[in-house]
Amino acid sequence: MNDPTRHPAYSIDRSQLGAVEINPVFARPAEATEFSKFRLPASESLPETAYQVVHDEAMLDGNARLNLATFVGTWMDDYANRLYAESADKNMIDKDEYPKTAEIETRCWMMLADLWHAPDPDNTIGTSTIGSSEACMLGGLALKRRWQHARKAAGKPTDHPNMVMSSAVQVCWEKFCNYWDIEPRYVPISEDHKVLDGANLADYVDENTIGVVAIMGVTYTGMYEPVKQIAAALDEIQERTGLDVKIHVDAASGGMIAPFIQPDLEWDFRIERVASINTSGHKYGLVYPGLGWVVWRSVDDLPEDLIFKVSYLGGDMPTFALNFSRPGAQVLLQYYMFLRLGMDGFRRVQANSHDVAKFLSSQIGAMDDFELWNDGSDIPVFAWRLKDRPNRKWDLYDLSERLRTRGWLVPAYPMPADLTDVTVQRIVVRNGLSHDLADAFLESMRAEVAYLDALPAPMPSQHKQSGFHH
Ligand SMILES: Cc1ncc(COP(=O)(O)O)c(C=O)c1O
């Protein structure tokens, strides 16, 4: 903190005020031969030169195909790429200039409302966002405002709102509570309750509870939380206490899996207590990053006083968003994917990822060292831990490091409260992780386990770090 060259929040080492050298092959007469890394250059350079520098730097990023850590889409087909290039200039907020993009946004969330069984899809309201994080914030804010209105109407104070959720929520919910002064009430997961399942909910819910978050596809493991069971626990609380606590379903991943793979599973607006649902278009919606969606059960579930109006075709269009300007292209890409795949196509793509996940989990579960935490039968994501074995010279962090040397990103990390002493490793199977690639991965994994087993001494224990797993 006292080192002025280090930014306390981001740990950027500013003592390295170095320069990016331009390869002599590309250096042009009268142009700079290097750029400062952290200072705006004093003069111009040719587009070719600037392109080459950025291109060469970005090339050093990892290979997205081998990234088994992220949920986010990294591939779209040539027609999508064409659309993307054609629409990269569109600003989502400018409904007046881009009325078609605005209309397509509405078509998309109405399709989602229908897919998620809104009782009256024509009477719902929704929006695109930059991702699920923003979508969750909007869902949470609507719950908060709804609770505030009810409390004020009853002449009761509104200064101590809380929200109830699993200790395994994604960090966006911690942010939501932090940014909007809401007390987060975490229900710890355990070996017996691997997800929030409604048990002991009454110990957490009270008159200041703005809502309960249920997750369809817990980030740590990919497991579904049983929304119906959570709703039943809240029904029981309402019967006893009169408190009517709504649910927001964080279906960042599961919202685009469950309707296709587990169509009979009731987790969505079929459950009356579900007020709003979000998903990430850029996860299993199969679109490039940044796109999220949030839909409310009905227009009544989004308090009117959260809505702003922007001009649209000489009139006004309601908007509810944290950002003002943001890209419109991803919305068009989502619409493209909806038209391109339809129900059947989505079913086939997601079923394929599911098959690969089940195959990989069965193979990893059959290895001597590993015990599955779950098998990828909810969303195509699964985690495993090490079985106890005396004198093992390595742990999952070491295995993660070894796999990285072969290009595979497979994070190891501790579970959240109350399971922080459990370390797991996780694979996210996305479209593009084929059976072939899965075989290649298993080969790498077996080879690296054999390498670690053959070490003459244990791996050093310092500097072990959790991989990116959000
Ligand atoms: C359950 C859950 N909620 C929210 C998010 C945040 O999503 P986004 O990255 O789209 O903001 C994630 C991301 O992994 C997630 O898994």
UniProtKB/TrEMBL annotation:
BP GO terms, sorted: L-glutamate catabolic process
Keyword Lyase: yes
EC number: 4.1.1.15
Catalytic activity: L-glutamate + H(+) = 4-aminobutanoate + CO2
Domain of life the protein comes from: Bacteria
Required cofactor(s): pyridoxal 5'-phosphate
Family under the similarity heading: Belongs to the group II decarboxylase family.
GO cellular component: cytosol
GO terms for MF: aromatic-L-amino-acid decarboxylase activity; glutamate decarboxylase activity; pyridoxal phosphate binding
Gene: gadB
One Pfam family linked to the record: Pyridoxal_deC
Signal peptide range in chain numbering: none
UniProt protein name: Glutamate decarboxylase
Residues with the N6-(pyridoxal phosphate)lysine modification: K283
Keyword line: Decarboxylase, Lyase, Pyridoxal phosphate
InterPro entries tied to this protein: Glutamate_decarboxylase, PyrdxlP-dep_de-COase, PyrdxlP-dep_Trfase, PyrdxlP-dep_Trfase_major
The keyword Lipid metabolism is annotated on this UniProt entry: no
